[in-house]
Design a protein that fits this description.
The chain is of the alpha+beta class and 555 residues long. The protein contains eleven helices and 27 strands. The chain starts with 9 loop residues before the first strand and ends in a 21-residue tail after the last helix. It binds flavin-adenine dinucleotide and iron/sulfur cluster.
């Protein structure tokens, strides 16, 4: 006997409270459904956010080592992945920059031709922009001014732009730090305080100015009845009553994410499930569920075509610079050095120098062997010739005040794949592992630009240690792995985010994206989630059994 809606603990369980999960929770609650959100990370407020990232246990997420922060770094052979983990997902640690990608991203990849994307997406982008309170950055900091000057010198000054940011900025002519009643949702939202341009966005805004998801989508979802279970990791999802396609609903099992011993296992039932645990989180969970037989029908495209947004993190340190580069919104401006290559100026706040541990002196060299040789000889030469300058460039104290981060992204294609395996150095547990062709670590034109900026202002070009020594690019924009496709043969979900082979089951996060966007991805993740949720009927319509159809019509 199929269960009736009221026999379930919830109508929908959303796994993960980041961009995709918060949109899903808000829209489903609005449609009259009973919604629970399971979130592995903790809830952060201005009172418990760390003042600096040297307070590692409140910055980094590695609960096995008693690090219970909101920022995670996961190394793979093909990329060093930076990602968020909190109530509000990556929005707690992200840099608030929300840009619409070029239209051509819809023309390639497994999603091409599956929906009239170019006609439909603009309205979903506009909804996400309104919900997230996105406006043009009015607070240019010293890092933005250096970028603008360097672009002028390089003859590409016309491409300089102020970023679109999800920050509550003060009105023209007024200083930041003033509190206003809800400025965004006609009084339904929380009161907010205007931005003071401290540059702290990436270690969490302690001034109530950043429009993180707990101030908009998730706030409204909770206000209208969604229940958020924090520090709760989903460990199993199985169809009820042995119905292989989930037509009778699902059982969701959870465990306490920060506990070492008492993991407080819990069981919930629901009619539908939304996987929104991020590209890495959803891939990890879905692989485990497929392999242990909980969801054996998941498509073989799981883990395929994982993208890094062709991102490369470089920068320049000015050890004796007179300006404090830590000031201004975390990503305040950008330029285009060619049609495919986009660079943004980013900064960390004063005192948040711990990130310097993964940074070193930049060097040229297309292949990793040449790069390492150049790096070793360059370091040795520099140590002998300018020991004090070299030491000052490498030691972390003062790094944020003295450093301009250049965040480089490209729309060019390139991907690797993920699978579950046992690493040779730790064969006791299966973990996600990357494989396949490498994505480029080295973006010559961007590196050349960083070198020129350094020369102009007397600084040292910098790069991530992993990019130089291991040929592994760093990225905060991991995408794909559960791609949108026309059938199980080329995707895990259809164009509405519905999982092939299961009813009332969706994936709604960065894992469904099927192209390198060349711009920061969170706005697109929200817009795709808005589109998927807009197609779910309201609770009053009682139309369950929503299932993906294989679509032959590929353009
Ligand atoms: C330092 C930094 C700066 C960034 N800046 C920008 C920027 O300026 N603009 C931009 O567009 N993007 C930025 N990004 C990227 C952005 O944060 C991500 O693209 C975005 O958060 C991905 O959204 P999502 O919905 O896929 O997942 P997320 O927002 O990552 O949310 C997924 C959530 O699921 C939870 N989860 C995972 N597994 C489970 C499980 N089994 N059970 C329960 N919960 C689970 C995680 O804890 C996480 O909170 C930045 C990222 C970083 C790290
Ligand atoms: S610059 Fe400072 S005040 Fe403004 S949003 Fe970022 S952290 Fe908040």
């Amino acid at each position: 006997m199929p269960a009736t809606a009221c026999e379930f603990d919830y109508d929908y369980i959303v796994i993960g409270s980041g961009f995709g999960g918060s949109v899903a929770a808000h829209r489903l609650t609005e449609k009259g459904y009973r919604v629970a959100v399971m979130e592995m990370g903790r809830r952060w407020t201005p009172e418990n956010l760390p003042k600096t990232n040297w307070i590692l246990w409140r910055w980094l997420w590695r609960p096995g080592l008693a690090l219970r922060g909101f920022f995670n770094i996961t190394p793979f052979r093909h990329a060093l992945i930076l990602h968020g983990c909190a109530v509000g997902g990556g929005s707690i640690t992200y840099a608030n920059t929300l840009l619409i990608p070029p239209e051509r991203i819809w023309d390639s990849g497994s999603w091409a031709g599956l929906a009239p994307w170019k006609q439909e997406m603009p309205r979903h982008y506009q909804t996400a922009i309104r919900m997230l309170g996105v406006t043009e950055n009015r607070i240019l900091g010293p890092a933005d001014r250096i970028l603008r000057h360097a672009a002028d010198v390089a003859g590409i000054g016309h491409t300089f732009y102020r970023t679109q940011v999800a920050v509550f900025q003060p009105p023209e002519g007024e200083a930041g730090g003033k509190t206003y009643p809800d400025p965004y949702f006609g009084g339904e939202g929380p009161e907010r305080t205007t931005c003071i341009g401290c540059g702290g966005c990436m270690i969490g805004c302690r001034f109530n100015a950043k429009n993180s998801l707990d101030k908009n989508y998730l706030y409204l979802a909770e206000k209208h009845g969604a229940r958020v279970f924090e520090e709760t990791k989903v460990v199993d999802v199985t169809p009820l009553n042995g119905q292989a396609d989930g037509r009778d609903g699902y059982e969701v099992r959870t465990a306490k994410s920060i506990a070492w011993l008492r993991r407080a296992p819990k069981r919930f039932t629901c009619r539908g499930v939304i996987f929104a645990a991020s590209a890495l989180g959803s891939m990890d969970l879905l692989f485990r569920l497929k392999q242990k037989g909980s969801l054996p029908g998941l498509g073989d495209q799981l883990g395929q075509r994982v993208r890094t947004n062709a991102e490369s993190l470089i920068g320049v340190r000015f050890p004796h610079g007179s300006e404090d580069l830590s000031k201004g919104i975390a990503i305040g401006s950008g330029i285009y050095i060619d049609q495919d290559t986009h660079i943004e100026a980013a900064n960390y706040p004063e005192g948040a120098d711990a990130i310097a541990i993964i940074v070193t002196v930049h060097t040229g060299g297309r292949t990793v062997c040449v790069r390492i040789l150049l790096w070793v000889s360059g370091m040795a030469r520099s140590m002998l010739r300018h020991p004090i300058k070299t030491f000052r460039s490498l030691q972390p104290v003062g790094w944020s005040r003295e450093s301009l981060i250049l965040l480089c992204m490209q729309t060019v294609d390139g991907y690797f794949h993920m699978r579950m395996g046992r690493p040779w150095f730790w064969p006791f547990r299966k973990v996600l592992m990357s494989y396949g062709k490498r994505v480029p670590t080295f973006i010559p034109r961007a590196n050349e630009f960083a070198r020129k900026v350094a020369e102009q202002v007397g600084g040292t070009p910098m790069s991530m240690v992993t990019e130089i020594l291991f040929d592994v690019p760093g990225t905060a924009h991991i995408l794909g792995g559960c791609p949108i496709g026309g059938s199980r043969a080329d995707g895990v979900v259809d164009h509405r985010g519905r999982v092939f082979g299961y009813r009332n089951m969706y994936v709604c996060d960065g894992s469904v994206l099927a192209a390198n966007l060349g711009v920061n991805p969170s706005l697109t993740i929200c817009a795709i989630a808005e589109r998927a949720m807009s197609m779910i009927p309201s609770a009053a319509e009682k139309q369950w059994d929503d299932a993906a159809e294989e679509c032959a019509a590929r353009g």
